[in-house]
Automatic annotation (TrEMBL):
PANTHER family: LIPOPOLYSACCHARIDE BIOSYNTHESIS PROTEIN WZXC, PST FAMILY PREDICTED COLANIC ACID TRANSPORTER. InterPro entries: Poly_Biosynth_Transport (IPR050833). CDD domains: MATE_tuaB_like (cd13127). This is Lipopolysaccharide biosynthesis protein.
């Protein structure tokens, strides 16, 4: 691996370019999948899968056990350590597969939905498949083989979407969504094994993997706490309101939050190996965080501002008739997603500096905020739950800066100012998109209405840049960095 600062910069730049391109393709595929399958599968059928998917998500965090991130950030990883980590991930995946199959009748009884038995048993095999793939995928990241990983991560959802559409055209029920998830895992497994060119040997003692488990344990705890808090709404809605409202909530969440995750997670894939190597150089570390915030947050938050202002049009275009009630949910998730993105560089810091224990403590505090938001919001139904979720994210953003600044060197003040400059552009853009829907002939729930909202947002953003020099400097930095990345990748 190229170890000089210049070599790391070049590889990170190439990785950022490839990762951005692949994630753009994956997001388009995700949006296309939601748009197409929403016209084949009704909300109540989506709600059935969502009831199981929340439990499956917890199992996926347990199955990874934080060991993929532990392997990616390790300065050195021996062949025997990698072998041992593989067998641990596989053993956990196999155990979860068996447990999910056995628990299927209990889950069905909990929600009083017999169809959940078959859904649970089918999705159980995702644990086993992903357990086989975890360390092969982590190995591609360690080697910075981002192009290879990008091909796999685009091919898998393409194949899965094609399979899901074929099933949906025949069944028009939840089976299309189940097949999509299983197919994605299976194609990813095949791709990373072929690309990884590595066959694990049998596990051995004395390989020195205790440090991996210590780091992974802290990360696992924080992920479980965060996931549980994020998905409490699924259980509350499923148990109290039924599959119909849960289907609306789930599709709005998937349409917005899953693409955001697909943007943010790969940014960690690119940033983590580099940040881990410069963690002891505060000047370079802080500079990368500040630039990373702008590159990640500015374009994403501006797009989310348009979604908030034109949520009716977004739902009309991407989900179609019958999903109109999802618009306020989508707007709330866009607010939450913007705040989470502004704070996301803090997550890089926890991982790069090995602060998984501190991350767990922070996650427990923010989980209390999320749970409180959902429970208080539940008095106002599904819209209140989404609003409570957004309110907790707004509170978490400044909390994240203060929390990290207490325990490590961290440019919290400068990151907060950078985030405020992003919001200074996003709020007028969102208001412009909302105002565009009030224009005569804008047809708010149509493609025309969405196009007018986007154009209005772009116009107002241009006016903001023209009026405020600091905002122009941020935009110029974004353009400069993107050009540098493209030049280095060429």
């Amino acid at each position: 691996m190229t170890g000089t600062p210049q070599g790391l910069g070049r590889r990170a730049a190439r990785g950022a370019t490839v990762t951005a391109a692949s994630q753009g393709a994956r997001i388009l595929l995700q949006v296309a999948a939601v748009a197409v399958l929403a016209r084949l599968v009704p909300p109540a059928e989506y709600g059935l899968v969502a009831m199981v998917a929340a439990a499956v998500g917890v199992g996926e965090i347990l199955r990874d056990a934080g060991l993929s991130s532990a392997a990616m950030r390790a300065p050195d990883l021996t062949r025997q350590q990698r072998d041992n980590l593989f067998w641990v991930n596989l053993a956990i995946g196999a155990a979860l597969c068996v447990a999910c199959i056995a628990a299927a009748p209990l889950i069905a009884r909990l929600f009083d939905e017999p169809a959940l038995i078959g859904i649970c048993r089918a999705l159980a095999f995702v644990f086993l498949i992903n357990g086989l793939a975890t360390q092969h995928k982590a190995g591609l990241v360690r080697e910075m083989r981002f192009r290879t990983l990008a091909v796999v991560e685009v091919a898998a959802p393409v194949a899965a979407l094609g399979t899901a559409i074929a099933v949906g055209l025949v069944t028009h029920d939840h089976r299309a969504v189940v097949v999509q998830q299983v197919a994605t895992a299976a194609v990813t497994l095949a791709g990373v094994w072929v690309a990884g060119r590595w066959l694990p040997a049998r596990p051995r003692r004395g390989a020195g993997t205790r440090g991996f488990f210590r780091f992974g344990g802290g990360l696992l705890g924080s992920q479980l706490v965060g996931y549980g808090a994020d998905n409490l709404a699924t259980f509350v809605i499923g148990l109290s309101l039924g599959p119909g409202p849960l289907g609306l909530y789930n599709r709005a969440y998937q349409l917005l939050m899953r693409p955001l995750t697909q943007l943010r997670q790969p940014s960690t894939t690119v940033a983590l190996p580099v940040l881990a190597r410069i963690a002891e150089d505060p000047v370079r570390f802080d500079r990368m965080l500040l630039r990373g915030q702008q590159v990640l947050a500015l374009p994403i938050v501006l797009v989310l501002a348009v979604v908030v202002g034109a949520s009716d049009a977004v739902v009309g275009v991407f989900l179609g008739p019958g999903w109109e009630s999802a618009a306020p949910l989508l707007a709330a998730f866009a607010v939450a997603g913007g705040c989470q993105t502004l704070a996301y560089v803090g997550y890089w810091t926890y991982l790069a500096r090995g602060l998984s224990g501190a991350l767990l403590a922070y996650s427990m505090v923010t989980a209390v905020l999320k749970i409180a938001g959902v429970l208080v919001g539940s008095f106002w139904g599904v819209n209140g739950i989404a609003a409570g979720f957004a309110a907790s994210a707004i509170l978490e953003w400044p909390l994240s800066f203060w929390w990290l600044s207490r325990i490590t060197s961290y440019p919290g003040g400068r990151l907060a100012l950078g985030g405020l400059r992003v919001l200074a552009q996003a709020v007028p853009v969102g208001l412009a998109a909302w105002g565009a829907g009030l224009l005569p002939g804008a047809a708010g729930a149509s493609a025309t209405g969405l196009a007018i909202a986007v154009a209005s947002g772009l116009l107002v953003w241009g006016l903001c840049l023209a009026a405020v020099p600091a905002l122009r400097r941020d935009a110029a930095l974004l353009v400069q960095l993107l050009r540098a990345v493209r030049g280095r990748a060429g």
